[in-house]
Structure prediction request, 492 residues.
Amino acid sequence: MHINKIKARVLALVISIAVVFSFSMTGCEDFLGLSKDKSSSTSASDSSSEASDSSQPDDSSESTTKPAVTTAPSAKTTAPTTPKVTDANTTKTTTKVTTKETTKVTTKATTTSGGSISGDTSAPQALTTAQKLAVYKFSSAQLSAYNEILTGIKNHQTKVYFSKKVPQADFIRVLKALRSSGNMYFYLVIDEQKGDITYDGSADVGYVNFKYKYPKATEDKMTTALQNKVNTISAAALKKSENYERIKYIHDYIIQHCTYNLNTANSYDAYGALVNGQTGCEGYSKAMALLCNQIGIECVTVTGSDKYSGVPHMWNMVKCNGNWYHMDVTYDDPVANFNNEETKYVGYDYFNITTAQVKLDHVIGNDDERYDNPYTVPTATATDGNYFVKNNAYATSYNDAVTKMTQQITIAANAKADRAVIRLSNFDIYKTTMNSWFIPDSEDSSKFVLSAKFNSIINNVNKTSKYKIKNVGHITMDDVQRQNVITIFLYY
Prediction:
């Protein structure tokens, strides 16, 4: 099952030009390869150390006999794209929209959270393991189990014993926290159809078996490549003077350097996003969390689904200057094709939005038991860190929309920027504004012409702007409410 994030409608141009857009919404899949190991337990390892962020893996690897595996039931969805194309004529822009579909996370995702930075101008440190896990409110026993698993993975162990048996519910919650967080452990083999992670079947779990995608030497080289990427991106982000700009830099970097692809070896992790440059929504989200945590900013992944399709999806919550916000890097990643020259631009529809706003087109996992998050998802109410609020592009009435769009087009025209974007405070104002600015073509109801009101905005801007706008294009969602954002493409 797949969805269209937006439907394209074609608007007339001030002066005609044929331009093709393709908008992609990436999706994601989740994994829960968890099975009970029916084989008898062997003797426990002599020691079990607790991991910290600074602990280094040794060369030890513990081999075990292969357990009999019972695979846990799970679901997996793959997302194709569904293009919608409107033909261009001499007075219309062709707008082609390709949706990167949301294939979803069927496990209950968890991620990292951590401590805030006390001051934006300081040099923040990477979050500690305890800070990353703060949102989960782990007990000391759960945190100990997490650290023992972490140590085993770092050491490439195929069987990890717990120093003290872990209640099964706690064990599963700990594993989900490990899998869904923004971490470096991309090399675990996790396939829910095969049961790649197994554990003893008792009520209290004594050990867990892992499989790895690569030999240790290969794994080490790939880990170094990922860490180098993380270090480079983090260093650039830290050059920004405050948290909002640091978060925006990471958001923009991922979008500009990553393409949606579920058919690679690392389609669901940060390595795929940052090193390969190809991943699904799970990889986008984990990369966002990994990079934010690296520069001392709390960021967690959230699982849920698309409100209109029900397709599973993963996104983030990020803490900016003391306030939690939702952020969907995947849905902010459009792919545009201007005059056959592919160009990626960055969207901000889902940048630092509230819980009420994300619920316009997302279902948070805790509101749907199928995708329940193993922690209480914070409620986001602040708006100070929202992209449109920060850029004076948030309109609360039709007249305000006219003022804000005029301002944004003027700013764009003076810089020869390709877009002007505003957000409306609700769907009614959005529809009123759209109906006032864009009128269905009498000869083709699937196409639109610019109204005299919108032409007046363009003409007024052209009187004073450094660069003169010749053409206007537009892509918008249709029929269902998304984020009430109006995006205008400008041609000079």
The CA atoms of residues 114 and 134 lie 6 Å apart. The chain has two domains: 30-90+102-331+345-383, 391-492. Confidence is low (pLDDT under 50) at residues 1-33, 38-121, 336-342. The chain is about 30% helix and 20% strand.
